[in-house]
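Cross-check.
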Amino acid sequence: MEDHKLKVFCTVAETKSFSKTSEIIHLTQPAVSLQIQALEELYETKLFDRSSSSINLTTAGEVLYRYAKDILALYAELEKEIGKLTGLIKGSITVGASTTIGNYVLPSVIVAFKKTHPKIKINVLIGNTKRILDFLNSGVIDLGLVEGETSRHKIKTERLIVDELALVVPPFHPWAKKKVVSILEITKEPFIIREEGSGTRQIIEKYLASHSIKISDMRVSLVLGGTESIKEAVESGMGISIVSRWAARKELRYGTLRMITPKEEKILRDFSLIMPKNAVISHAVDEFLSYLKAYHYDTLLSESKAL
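Predicted model, tokenized:
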């Protein structure tokens, strides 16, 4: 059923950007413009006001947007009902995921899901939690998987799994054979940390503050912009760090890193599933949600045991 033009139109309306729509819909920018032009020719009126620096809906555009959202919701319901009758589940899903869960958890889940649902296409957008929330609010994604807390009233949040962060050291470090170390001891070691603004860094700073430790008390040897570079630096002996157990599972499996739990208490945060409240979801999204909730995530962590 032809609903592509309406999807393009709604995405432009929600992002207020032809270039962002081009990235999200996977069309060239001229192709996005042609889709909007076709709708404007069909209704013989302008749908967007491009006179200022931003793109805004005209009065006619606002009317079309309101009806287009209802029409797309009806299409989703129709697809769901037909899928139930035929037993054929197909369609596409766009998932937004914050960095740790998007890079280290979601790929394995999608691979397993596709084995039993080959007709469903899944697109993944990865960004920080704030960006994923913005994507969800603007209708760019069907669902989001984020780290940490969310406080949006229009969003339904459900804890999916717990993430544990812990100390990582190279196998030749004096602590490598220890299972626990006091968090107070880390002030004596060269420490590698994520850049300011990182969600992981915020969790670490909050935990350290609960034990009266400030970043200024640490012997910070490196500030790096990604977990991969931090793991490589730790493996090279440039310092110790704190990372997610999910992010380090491959290195733990092959023995290139050792993970140590703080003696005081574990550093925990939630990975949460976020959805718009009262959203009409397609049969494909419904099936993927059920799969996400039923998946045995502990099997992924069990792979991190050293060979």
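The radius of gyration is 23 Å. The first strand starts at residue 48 and ends at 49. Passed to J.P. for a second look.
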